[in-house]
Recover the amino acids of this structure.
């Protein structure tokens, strides 16, 4: 009988362990299902948020394009008067140089003047045209000290009065 009692206790211990193990497995399964449901809920919210962000991104891109177009228009409005002023100044400077050179023209001087005129046209006209097209480099055109129309006429022996 002793062996039967021992056998029963062993079987009871085995059954108790098995029952506890099944309880743990059931608890873990329930926790896993709960975590899975939470994860699915989070993924759903993340997907909805992603869609909203995509919609906002498209809207922001549209607003950015409108702002850039407006800014470009403002820049053009500001630059147009300056282009006209540069054109006016270059024409006035050209006329001033012509008026100082014209009284001193002789045949060799006339050839030099024609050559000078071509050189000025080759240099200035592309810049003026580029400015008109809006492709000119930024900044202002200036004449370096000692290189103005008065200085050119005063330093060139044939152009002195």
């Amino acid at each position: 009988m002793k062996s039967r009692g021992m056998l029963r206790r062993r079987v009871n211990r085995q059954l108790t362990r098995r029952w506890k193990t099944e309880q743990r497995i059931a608890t873990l399964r329930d926790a896993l299902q709960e975590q899975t449901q939470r994860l699915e809920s989070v993924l759903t919210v993340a997907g909805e948020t992603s869609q909203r962000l995509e919609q906002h991104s498209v809207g922001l891109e549209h607003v950015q394009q409108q702002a850039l177009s407006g800014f470009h228009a403002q820049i053009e409005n500001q630059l147009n008067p300056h282009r006209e002023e540069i054109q006016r100044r270059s024409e006035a400077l050209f006329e001033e140089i012509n008026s100082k050179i014209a009284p001193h023209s002789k045949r060799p001087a006339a050839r030099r003047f024609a050559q000078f005129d071509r050189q000025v046209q080759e240099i200035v006209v592309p810049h003026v045209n580029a400015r008109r097209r809006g492709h000119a480099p930024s900044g202002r055109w200036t004449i370096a000290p000692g290189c103005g129309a008065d200085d050119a006429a005063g330093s060139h022996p044939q152009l002195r009065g």
About this structure: Helices lie at 2-101, 107-133, 149-155. The longest helix spans residues 2-101.
